[in-house]
Amino acid sequence: MAGRRLSPDEAALWARVMATVSPLSPDKIAPLATATDVPAKPAPKRLAGRVAKPMPLVPPPSPKPVAPGITLDGGWDRKLSRGAVEPDATIDLHGHTLTSAHGLLDQALERSRARGDRVILLITGKPPRRESERPHARGAIRAAVGDWLHASRHAAAIAAVRNAAPRHGGAGALYIILRRARSAPKS
């Protein structure tokens, strides 16, 4: 896979990092890129006395649609923490591999959005205990759920993700709160 070239600063930093590493086998080391191997940045163009800013190579990341504490009011948070909200749907990921759990979550979110559900109970299983030794045998799905939701095609429809109340699974479950579906304007 071809990647972008390192900037002179990145190449210098990489060279400093590599200088701190001792190789296992010197005959298997590829030569390092040096700052002279990296093409120089072109001079910025002048526009009517001003310097034009170069366009970024990669667009900046979009703001996270799942931002805990921002999209819900205090009333929602109080109801969720007490378990006073009944979920419209439940998704249980027990017994699934990471791949099958990811697929199941995506399909279930699609169905819930089509039905107009607002609160989904996602059962992931409890995260590993702090005293457990790494690598953890448990908690892989729970650890991946946040990334899955943020990168999913449903991310813009998710208002918030909260820990479930004890009566709904506590540390082994999450609430996914979907945004209210916008109705079409009347003509």
Shape estimate: elongated
* Alpha-carbon distance between the two ends: 52 Å
**Total number of strands:** 6
Q: Percent helix among the residues?
A: 25-40%
Give the helix/strand class: alpha+beta
Spell out the helices and strands N to C: HEEHEHEHEE
Which regions have little confidence, pLDDT < 50, spanning 5+ residues? 60-69
Strand proportion, as a percent range, falls in: 5-15%
Mean pLDDT: 75
The biggest beta sheet is recorded as:
4 strands, mixed
Q: Strands of the biggest beta sheet: in what spatial order?
A: 3-4-6-5
Number of helical elements: 4
Task: Determine Rg (CA atoms, Å).
Answer: 24 Å
Short summary:
The protein is built from four helices and six strands.
Outline the structure in words.
- The structure is a single chain.
- Strands 3-4-6-5 form a four-stranded mixed sheet, with helices on both faces. A two-stranded antiparallel sheet has the order 1-2.
- By secondary structure, it is α+β, with helices and mostly antiparallel strands.
- About 5% of the residues have low confidence.
- 27% of the residues lie in helices and 13% in strands.
Descriptive keywords:
27% helix; four-stranded mixed beta sheet; alpha+beta; 4 helices; 13% strand; two-stranded antiparallel ribbon
